[in-house]
Amino acid sequence: xxxANHIISFIKNLSFPFKLPGExxxxxxxxxxxxxxxxxxxxxxxxSDHNNRWMIIGINPGRFGGGVTGIPxxxxxxxxxxxxxxxxWPKKQELSSLFIYxxxxxxxxxxxxxxKFYFTAVSPLGFTRNNKNLNYYDDKILENGIKDFAVNxxxxxxxxxxxxDVVFCLGDGKNYKYLSKLNAEHKFFKQIIPLSHxxxxxxxxxxxxxxxxxxxxxxxxxxxxx
Length: 226
Description:
alpha/beta, Uracil-DNA Glycosylase, subunit E, 14% strand
């Protein structure tokens, strides 16, 4: 199987394993026919090979990016303008997607970048509470409840052809701490490199964005030497 076929099979079989507490809802964009079609087009365009890749792990998909398109850190705008994949969704911007595609273009563009890297998340499915994005670690019941789901998803994805010497973690606070705890228990990766989360940069550190871009590129450049 190609890397693309592994991903497509994985997302088609994603489902959340337990009842969510209170007002929390799970976002599963892969139940939508257009999302599946778009994902198949995207992954067959960039991942139809047997290359090994480095994994970049986020928190969980958001409402205006992966929670719509099914592709991590890719909102409908970037999907069309940067990846050339047309879609019918409202062209709402996700701040994280804006930053990530600046990184991707600085690295050489989508074709170059996606040959080396694969985006995923601790929880490949996202969450909302009262129609607002919810990070898994912002609710203790959810944080504890996703553990088996997160571990099982990671085990499946590592079989795609992932380089396990280094992994990049988006979010150098709670997400890094949680991933490090899982890794200490399951030994997925030899080293976890934390990076400031794109949304944090765009929301709170916009004036210093160029410094963060250079920091990302320095860390990711490790993979160009391999």
